[in-house]
Amino acid sequence: MTSKNNVTELIITGLFQDPQVQRVCFVVFLLLYLATVVCNGLIVLTVSVSKSLRSPMYFFLSYLSLVEISYSSTVVPKFITDLLIKIKTISLEGCLAQIFFFHFFGVTEILLLTVMAYDRYGAICKPLHYTTIMNQAVCHLLVAGCWLGGIIHSMVQILVTVQLPFCGPNVIDHYFCDLHPLFKVACTDTFVEGAIVLANSGLISVISFLILVSSYVVILVNLRNHSAEGRRKALSTCASHITVAILFFGPAIFLYMRPSSTFTEDKLVAVFYTVITPMLNAIIYTLRNAEVKNAMRRLWDKKVNSGIE
Questions:
Q1: Which of 31, 108, 173, 239 sits most deeply, having the most CB atoms within 10 A of its CB?
Q2: Under 8 Å between Cβ of 25 and 185
Q3: Distance of alpha carbon 167 from alpha carbon 7, whole angstroms
Q4: Helices and strands in the chain: count of H runs, count of E runs
Q5: Is 251 in contact with 270 (CB distance < 8 Å)?
Q6: Are 196 and 179 in contact (CB under 8 A)?
Q7: Rounded Cα distance, 64 and 270, in Å
Q8: The predicted structure's pLDDT at residue 221
Q9: How does strand 88-91 pair with strand 171-172?
């Protein structure tokens, strides 16, 4: 019987093969990653110190930004470093760890976006009971539930993957470790494992997205009874969240709700949701939210004034 421990190191093909293109990508993706960390970090800092941002919406937003930094950091730093290396390698243990944390933070973000939709539903459709529905204890429980859901999801993925035998070849056709590319180098049939991943990852994305969409359908129906100013403010807040949800759920459903493939488009879609989306989310929530912008401005003014003194 073939040993399952023959492969201890994996070779990653990367995104592009041309060295010149890789050097350009290094600069571009490094700037995007730094922007992701800075922008999301500013949101976390602003919400934590600003007394005007104490509502549940901003409580969840600060955790979403924290998850965005963590989610992007599981893939992007190594991806950027690999752009300067001719032969890109990762240990099998490192690959499994990357898969675990990538899916952990990814599903935590999906669940947080769903919770944020429920929060908007409570604020707009149940305003008289909102403070009771979304009190501090409930908010903390919901966030804890999101983290727990992410851990359970990732444990299932890893338990499925760690039992597979890897005896060669050891080349992964991707720029980071993910389940479908890793399944392709297992020296056994992975149909059952692929079906489990499809059910686990795909259904979480679809069910959460349907809950989110249903929440906003109810919200839109209820907005007919609000004043023009109330509708404008509510729609402005909801538009940011809907945009972020579509940017995240769209690629996730595209990649995990169908059989695995070797399409180049898969890598490009993965670049979008690992590198670009975490940065765009912070920008969208900042630029479209007057309260966050004003709080950041006050924080900056306070910093400048204290520096002058």
A1: 108
A2: no
A3: 5
A4: 13, 3
A5: yes
A6: no
A7: 19
A8: 87
A9: unpaired
Instruction: Please give the distance of CA 238 from its chain centroid, rounded to a whole number.
Output: 19
Q: Which residues are registered as beta bridge partners of 60? A: none
Question: What pLDDT score does 245 carry?
Answer: 84
Measure the CA dihedral 131/137/139/142, to 10°.
Answer: -130
pLDDT of residue 257: 66
In this predicted structure, what is the pLDDT of residue 304?
66
As a whole number, the mean pLDDT across the chain is 87
pLDDT at 4 over 60: no
Three-point CA angle 35, 204, 212, nearest 5°: 70
Counting residues of the chain whose pLDDT is more than 70, the rounded percentage is 93
Classify residue 269 by burial, with Cβ atoms within 10 Å: 0-12, 13-18, 19+. Answer: middle
> Phi and psi (nearest 5°) for 270?
-65, -40
Residue 173 CA from chain centroid, whole number: 22
pLDDT tens track for 126-157: 888 899 999 999 999 999 999 999 999 999 99
Q: Where are the beta strands (DSSP E) in 92-172?
A: 171-172
Q: Is the pLDDT reported for residue 252 higher than 50? A: yes
- Residues 6 or more apart in contact with residue 186 via CB below 8 angstroms: 164, 165, 166
Q: Which helix (H) or strand (E) holds 88?
A: strand 88-91
Distance, CA of 158 to CA of 195 (rounded, Å): 14
Question: Domains along the chain?
Answer: 9-304 (1.20.1070.10)
Q: From 35, 34, 65, select the one nearest 48 (Cα to Cα).
A: 65
pLDDT tens per residue across span 45-65: 999 999 888 899 999 999 999
Residue, of 301 and 99, whose pLDDT is higher: 99
Amino acid at 119: D
Q: What is the average per-residue pLDDT within 161-188?
A: 89
Backbone angles phi, psi at 18, to 5 degrees: -70, 120
Spatial contact of 211 and 113, defined as CB atoms under 8 Å apart: no
43 and 65 Cβ atoms separated by less than 8 Å: yes
